[in-house]
Automatic annotation (TrEMBL):
It holds the Pfam family Methyltransf_11. It comes from Daphnia pulex (Water flea). The keyword Cell division does not apply. Keywords: Methyltransferase, Transferase. InterPro entries: AlkB_tRNA_MeTrf/Diox, Methyltransf_11, SAM-dependent_MTases_sf. It comes from the Eukaryota. Residues 35-124 form the Methyltransferase type domain. One of its GO terms (molecular function) is tRNA methyltransferase activity. GO terms for biological process: methylation; tRNA modification. This is Methyltransferase type 11 domain-containing protein. The lineage of its organism: Eukaryota, Metazoa, Ecdysozoa, Arthropoda, Crustacea.
Length: 135
């Protein structure tokens, strides 16, 4: 679905969320950050004093991010191709709720924890399925 919608999605979702921007701006200069599920790379442009690597399963979104000169690759959040404890921080913004089962969501969280250095920071957002207005 996202391969078909990536161009429209990129035009609609280009402004970083304030809380994510704050998280990235508070990191130490030189920090290495993984954005798992980076989409069009909108968070890869925040804070030029840190190094960011993005990944997404959607090839079309990765192409959009590459055209913006971001460091990105195609991969699955369940099998990140990085060494253990190699990142100072990690992001997973509006990604994990897309995984179909609880087991897959837990596996994605474990992958993020695996690549994070001891003492590293992580920011994860998911949609709140229990909100009253949802049916």
């Amino acid at each position: 679905v996202y391969d078909q919608l990536s161009h429209h999605f990129s035009e609609e979702r280009y402004r970083p969320w304030p809380r994510v921007r704050q998280f990235l701006e508070q990191l130490e200069p030189g920090s290495l950050v993984c954005d798992a599920g980076c989409g069009n790379g909108k968070y890869l442009q925040v804070n030029p004093s840190i190094f960011k690597v993005g990944s997404d399963r959607c090839a079309a979104s990765v192409d959009v991010a590459r055209r913006k000169d971001h460091e990105v690759l195609i991969c699955d959040a369940l099998n990140l191709p990085y060494r253990d404890e190699s990142f100072d921080a990690a992001l997973s913004i509006a990604v994990i709720h897309h995984l179909a089962t609880r087991d897959r969501r837990v596996r994605a969280l474990r992958e993020l924890a695996r690549i994070l250095r001891v003492g590293g920071r992580i920011l994860i957002t998911v949609w709140a399925k229990e909100q009253r207005h949802r049916k």
